[in-house]
TrEMBL record:
It comes from Corallococcus soli. This is NAD(P)/FAD-dependent oxidoreductase. Its cofactor is FAD. InterPro entries: FAD-binding_MO, FAD/NAD-bd_sf. The lineage of its organism: Bacteria, Pseudomonadati, Myxococcota, Myxococcia, Myxococcales. Belongs to the FAD-binding monooxygenase family. The keyword Membrane does not apply.
Length: 504
């Protein structure tokens, strides 16, 4: 049988990055900086770069972390707004793409459906669909880097509500915000109490007749300045890069302090947050009914509101909060279990996201399907038994991108080690298959709990931890050795290299 012609072989790159959002763009920049000779491509299923910040179009959409830490370490955030809107974040990301020449490597309308690893070829063959034409094609790569985040881009979560069809107004999910929606002078009910809801309420209250945030359970809400005065001063006194680095270190320290304080002293943290809320709300406001969750701070993600905009909307009378359960939708709005009826022209279901591990990509290794719940995450970035595969999941208790940057650095260091020792394959392997494991994300949020049985696992033992501690990750991912007894290296067609375990 004659060998295949070059024209019959799939296009090949050293690294294939899936996703052109904040993680994928960052991964491409690190790879290009540290391995300029390696070929790579970035595949994006949608028709634009930016990921989350291009997808969501609802009023007021903004970050819930400061941009000095949500932005990249290698590119300064220079806007006065530290808590920034989607438009500014998207401009920053696309400026990064252009500045680093990543745009030449991004292929829009390319959705990855599956990827098959062959140990004999030491490469992945990736099944790709052109979403604009329906064409299917194959690409191959030495490494597959999944930077698609962890939720479904095509579908938000809406629980079942009785009587939805009876409602005569419009029901909208924030993930699918209609461009033609006119809510001026309308009565709006926003169902939810998370980051999306606390963003929507003050933004819509500026033009709506009234906005009610209807929550089943309160969330912790903490006001924060939209502008970072320290950053403004630093930019006046220092060059741009140094000012960014100093502000970033300050904000990392603040995030770490707040999270640790909440973990170690939850009662004191609860009292502090309540005090801050009371200071921003009208005298006599029922804080314990609407802003006193039954769980401890940071058991779920803490919501920040820049310049206390949510509390200002409530204080002005343009917005209100109702803490109750929905009995049913009615023709005019919502009937609550307390007997109260909320009339509305528009109901927004800010009820959360659907998680989707690895962007829904179906993986196989030597013909055997990879069942994610049977895998364990290695250093929070690879999967047991899956060669030459990395994924990017950021922090849930701090800025997402802080973790992504460290993962990308470690990934590039791993490639350097493999090149230096002539290795083509790298596979995490469990030394103890009976090792106790638990869910990948230790986070008591509804969208996480709904998807736990579809996600990889983790352990309490290194290197199978899913660390949420930035300083610990700096020591491990930036400063620590890339070599570990649980990480097996081999050369194409050869066995695992026994001396690689001892290599530096």
């Amino acid at each position: 049988m004659s060998p295949p012609r070059d024209a019959d072989l799939p296009e090949h790159v050293d690294v294939l990055i899936v996703g052109a959002g904040i993680s994928g763009i960052g991964a491409a920049c690190y790879l290009q900086r540290d391995h300029p000779s390696k070929s790579y491509a970035v595949l994006e299923a949608r028709g634009a770069t930016g990921g989350t910040w291009d997808l969501f179009r609802y009023p007021g959409i903004r970050s819930d972390s400061d941009l000095h830490t949500l932005g990249y370490e290698f590119k300064a955030w220079t806007s006065n707004k530290s808590i920034a809107g989607a438009e500014a974040i998207l401009a920053y990301l696309r400026e990064t793409v252009a500045e680093y020449g990543i745009d030449r490597r991004i292929r829009l309308h390319h959705r990855v459906h599956g990827a098959a690893w062959s140990s004999s070829d030491a490469r992945w063959v990736v099944d790709v669909e052109r979403t604009d034409t329906g064409e299917r094609k194959k690409l191959s790569c030495r490494w597959l880097f999944c930077a698609s985040g962890y939720y479904r881009y095509d579908q938000g979560f809406t629980p079942h509500f009785e009587g939805t069809a009876r409602f005569q107004g419009r029901v909208i999910h924030p993930q699918h915000w209609p461009e033609d929606l006119d809510y001026s002078g309308k009565r709006v009910v926003v169902i939810g109490s998370g980051a999306t809801a606390v963003t929507l309420v003050p933004a819509m209250a500026n033009t709506a007749a009234h906005v009610t945030m209807l929550q089943r359970t309160p969330s912790y809400v903490l006001p924060t300045p939209a502008e970072d005065l320290f950053a403004k001063l630093a930019r006046k006194l220092l060059p741009k890069k140094q000012a960014h680095a100093l502000t970033r270190r300050k904000n990392i320290a603040l995030q770490r302090f707040l999270w640790r304080f909440c973990q170690r002293f939850p009662r004191a943290a609860r009292r502090f947050i309540r005090f801050v809320n009371a200071r921003e709300l009208p005298k006599g406001y029922p804080i314990d009914e609407h802003f006193n969750p039954p769980y401890n701070p940071w058991d779920q993600r803490l919501c920040v509101v820049p310049d206390a905009d949510l509390f200002k909307a409530i204080s002005s009378g343009r917005a209100s909060v109702a803490t109750d359960h929905i009995e049913t939708f009615t023709e005019k709005g919502l009937q609550l279990k307390s007997g109260r009826e909320l009339e509305a022209d528009i109901i927004v279901t800010a009820t959360g996201l659907n998680l989707q591990a690895l962007g829904g990509i179906a993986l196989t290794v030597n013909g055997a399907p990879v069942r994610l719940p049977e895998t364990v995450a290695y250093r929070g970035m690879m999967l047991s038994g899956v060669p030459n595969f990395a994924f990017a999941v950021g922090y849930t208790n701090a800025s997402w991108t802080l973790k992504i940057g460290l993962l990308c650095e470690h990934f590039c260091r791993l490639l350097t080690h493999m090149d230096a020792h002539g290795h083509t394959t790298c596979t995490p392997e469990l030394s103890d298959p009976a090792m106790p494991t638990r869910p990948l994300l230790d986070f008591d949020a509804g969208y996480v709990k709904r998807a736990l049985d579809t996600l990889p696992r983790r352990s309490d033992e290194a290197p199978w931890l899913m660390s949420m501690d930035y300083h610990a990750d700096v020591k491990l991912l930036r400063e620590g050795s890339v070599v570990d007894p649980n990480l097996r290296f081999s050369s194409h067609g050869g066995p695992a290299s026994p001396d690689s375990v001892m290599a530096g």
